[in-house]
Each structure stands twice: as structure tokens, then as C-alpha cells.
Write a structure and sequence with these properties.
Layout lengths: L1 H31 L14 H34 L6
């Protein structure tokens, strides 16, 4: 059962990060009017915009991963009937 819980937690985290990245990309397009510089080696984008996009994407992905992981762990504890320990 422990392996199943780890798989569920991983799946939720991966899904949440995927959705967050799509939201960051759409927000970038709306704010800048340009496609996000996903490839940092592409010379059509400035180094500044590539670095800013990389930092924003990484920060959002890390935050969402933590939130999704903690939320999944809380749900698992509730299903097991244990008081919240997180």
C-alpha cells in the first residue's frame, strides 16, 4: 500500500506541475505579447527574458510541487483516519 501512496503522490505532483507550467506559459504570452523562451539557447530571445522565464517557471513549479505533495499527504492521513500531522 505504501508504494501505491507514493505513486499517487508523484502522479499528483507531476500533474500539478504540468498544469502550472501551462499557466505560466499563457501568462507570459499575455503579459509580454511573445511566446515564452522555453529554449534558453534560442538566439531569437534575449538572455534576460530567457533567464526571467526560467526563474519564474522553476519557482512556480517548486511551489506547486510542495503544495500538491502536502495536500496529497494530508488527504492520505485523513483516509487512514489519523489526525493531521503535517
Amino acid at each position: 500500500m505504501n508504494l501505491l501512496l507514493k505513486l499517487v503522490t508523484t502522479g499528483v505532483s507531476v500533474g500539478a506541475v504540468f498544469v502550472a507550467n501551462k499557466i505560466v506559459e499563457k501568462t507570459w504570452e499575455k503579459c509580454t505579447g511573445k511566446k515564452p523562451p522555453k529554449d534558453g539557447t534560442d538566439p531569437t530571445h534575449s538572455l534576460r527574458s530567457a533567464l526571467i522565464f526560467a526563474l519564474v517557471s522553476a519557482a512556480v513549479a517548486a511551489m506547486i510541487q510542495v503544495i500538491a505533495g502536502r495536500g496529497t499527504q494530508r488527504a492520505i492521513l485523513r483516509l487512514k483516519g489519523k489526525p493531521e500531522e503535517i
